[in-house]
Specification:
It is a multi-pass membrane protein. Its main location: membrane. The chain is mainly α. It is about 75% helix and about 5% strand. It has one domain (about 1-225). α1 runs antiparallel to α10 (about 245-265), α2 (about 40-55) runs parallel beside α4 and α2 packs across α9 (about 225-240).
Length: about 300
């Protein structure tokens, strides 16, 4: 029983990490129709900016309020990177899917190379609060605090995104744009500002995932964003392109499946089962868990 509780909570922690990355991807594709393969770069920038700030930025550090300051700096850096990418590289390429893919894939590879050239290819120890290295007893299971931190953060981010989409003007524009972008444009609303805002939100969530994911793993590396991006894309497809709630459901399914299968099976079998789940969803419900059937 203790093992089941531990696997469930650590699986939810992994799911929370996947959701933080996938939520921005889902919003960006739902509104702007952009498959952003450079999304992992925002995660990497957020992770390394937090790592740098914890040791160099006045007022920042690995513990207490200093850690909050370091994470805020990392999130700001990831958000700024996302906005610059949208304004400089993506905005001239809307409605040009092939060019978008080529540019974002190239930017992703260049970003990893730049991180490697700056800080080296090897993983570096990540400065994290002492309490995140400890465990909390829950129903007899010793649960790592780093995973619990991810669960809390993802829950808050999900609530904040849903509140923003429901109760703010730009949130309503984004929701309407996801449903029918042509109608929103015909009403005289400049959706380009919404595109930039969505990229900023996605970049912030990805950067937060980079910072807290590094706390969870205990290290930061240039390849971290790329490896997490693969599972984030799987989560987005399973959940339904453009659906944040669907991404949350899919992230839970993927995280729990991966954790339980890897524990009770052989190492790596959980990854195979996740891909098999993706195939089943594409065959039986191509629009995803919360996606809508395309109409002519």
């Amino acid at each position: 029983m203790d093992a089941i509780i531990l696997l469930t909570l650590t699986g939810l922690g992994l799911a929370a990490l996947y959701f933080l990355v996938a939520s921005g991807l889902s919003l960006v594709f739902g509104l702007a129709d952009v498959l952003n393969f450079a999304h992992g770069l925002f995660l990497g920038v957020g992770a390394y900016a937090t790592w740098w700030a914890a040791g160099n930025l006045p007022g920042a550090g690995p513990d207490g309020l200093g850690f909050v300051v370091a994470v805020a700096f990392g999130v700001a850096a990831g958000t700024l990177m996302a906005v610059l990418v949208e304004l400089v590289l993506i905005r001239p390429l809307y409605s040009r899917t092939i060019e978008q893919v080529l540019v974002t894939v190239g930017l992703s590879l260049a970003g990893v190379a730049l991180l490697q050239a700056t800080w080296g290819a090897d993983a570096r120890p990540f400065p994290r609060p002492e309490w995140t290295r400890q465990v909390t007893p829950i129903l007899g299971a010793q649960v790592p605090n780093g995973g619990l931190l991810l669960i809390v953060a993802a829950t808050l981010v999900l609530g904040a995104i849903l509140a923003f989409l429901r109760w703010t003007r730009y949130g309503l524009i984004i929701r309407a744009g996801v449903e029918n972008r042509e109608m929103v444009t015909a009403l005289g609303i400049d959706v380009r500002k919404a595109f930039t805002l969505v990229f900023a939100i996605g970049g912030a969530a990805a950067a937060l995932a980079g910072a807290l994911g590094s706390v969870y793993f205990g290290t930061v590396s240039p390849q971290q964003g790329g490896s997490l991006l693969i599972f984030a894309f799987i989560v987005v497809v399973i959940g339904g392109m453009g659906s944040v709630v669907g991404s949350a459901y899919a992230a839970v399914a993927v995280g729990l499946l991966q954790q339980f299968v890897n524990y009770y099976g052989t190492s790596g079998l959980g990854d195979i089962c996740v891909v098999a789940l993706l195939a089943v969803v594409l065959l039986l419900r191509p629009q995803g868990i919360a996606g809508k059937v395309a109409t002519a």
